[in-house]
Amino acid sequence: MTAQSRPRTSRIRFERVQEQPRWLMFVSPIILIGAALLVGALLLSLTGANPWFVYQRMAQAAFGDRYGWSDTTIKATPLILAGLGVSIAFRMRLWNIGAEGQLYIGAFCATGVALHLFSPETPAWLMLTAMAIAGFLGGAFWGFIPGVLKAKLNVNEIITTLMLNYVAIFWNNYFIYGPWSERGFGLTPQFPRNAWLPRFTDFGAAVPSFRGLTMHAGIFLALIVALILWVVWRRTKWGFEVSIIGDNPQAARYAGVNLARKIMIVMALSGGLAGLAGMAEVSGVVHRLQERFSPGYGFTAIIVAWLAKLNPLALIVVAYLFAGLLVGGDVIQPAGIAQLLQGVILFVVVGGEMMLRYRIRIERS
Amino acid sequence: MRKERLLLVLTMLLTFVMLFSACAAPAAAPAEGESSDSGDAAEAPAAESSIQIPETVDGKFNIAFVYVAPIGDGGWTYAHNQGREFLEAEMGDEVATAYLESVPEGADAERVIRNLARQGFDAVFTTSFGYMDATETVAEEFPDTYFVHVSGFKKNETNFSNLFGAMESMKYLAGMIAGARAAEDGSNRIGYVAPFPIPEVIRHANAAALGMRQTCPDCELDIRWIFTWFDPDLERQAAESMFDAGASVVITGSDTPGPVQVAGERGMYGIGYDSDTACEVDPGACLTVPYWHWGPFYVELAQSMMDGSFAGSDIYFDVDSGALGLLGFMEGQEPMAGVPESVIPQVQDLLAQMQAGDFTRFNIFTGPINDNQGNVIVPEGTVLTQSDLEGLSGIEGREDCTICMSWLAEGIVPDAQIPE
Question: Does B115 touch chain A (CB under 8 A)?
Answer without folding.
Answer: yes
